[in-house]
Backbone:
């Protein structure tokens, strides 16, 4: 009996020498795998954020419309996008977005905060948030410090208007929202908005259209027209 116990004990010691190092290695490897997966996710979100950051305009597109005497004329607009740090946005990237008409640069016609994140299905989405007291952050691209007081309490999520993005290739992301009539609108008789966006390293193409419940076009570029093409400027001004 003693001999048997001694044999069992020896086997246990041998297994201990083998199993414990294996377990230790697994403990070391698992966090690295998790970190690698998180880094992959963050990389695509950061790429979209980097491509969107800066100043853009539609001037080249408007000039082409005029030269071609196009039936539909895109507006001469400027887009400024600035990263902003907002407490409580875990694993997400926030951008302050300001749209201006070229002739009215001190009174933007649209101000939003975009939150780029992953949803429960690991898809990249951009949440769109309205800003309370938005007049306090006009022209923040010139003075980013005025964005420091933005908090989640200052933002109102535009429910149903989240844009879902897909990576097409290394130079293109495509996104859309409202295709199921979820993004509500009351502008000019519309009941919902459909938006389509393409993002590359040098430009953002954005098509926003309003429709009623019967599918009649109410505002934005008419069906068949391309969206507004915002080309990134070399300098912010």
Residues:
């Amino acid at each position: 009996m003693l001999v048997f116990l001694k044999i069992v004990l020896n086997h246990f010691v041998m297994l201990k020498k083998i199993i414990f190092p294996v377990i230790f290695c697994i403990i070391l490897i698992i966090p690295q795998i998790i970190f690698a997966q998180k880094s992959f996710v963050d990389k695509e979100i950061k790429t979209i954020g980097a491509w969107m950051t800066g100043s853009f305009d539609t001037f080249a597109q408007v000039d082409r419309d005029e030269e071609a005497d196009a039936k539909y004329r895109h507006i001469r607009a400027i887009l400024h996008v600035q990263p902003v740090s907002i407490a409580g946005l875990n694993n997400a990237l926030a951008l302050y977005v300001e749209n201006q008409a070229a002739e009215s640069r001190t009174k933007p016609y649209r101000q939003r905060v975009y939150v780029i994140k992953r949803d429960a299905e690991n898809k990249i989405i951009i949440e769109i948030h309205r800003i309370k007291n938005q007049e306090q952050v006009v022209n923040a691209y010139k003075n980013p410090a005025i964005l420091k007081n933005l908090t989640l309490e200052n933002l109102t999520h535009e429910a149903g208007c989240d844009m879902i993005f897909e990576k097409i290739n290394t130079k293109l992301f495509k996104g859309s929202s409202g295709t199921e009539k979820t993004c509500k609108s009351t502008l000019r008789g519309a009941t919902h908005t459909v938006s389509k966006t393409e993002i590359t390293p040098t430009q953002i193409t954005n098509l926003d259209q309003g429709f009623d419940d019967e599918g009649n076009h109410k505002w934005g570029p008419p069906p068949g027209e391309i969206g507004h093409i915002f080309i990134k400027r070399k300098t912010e001004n």
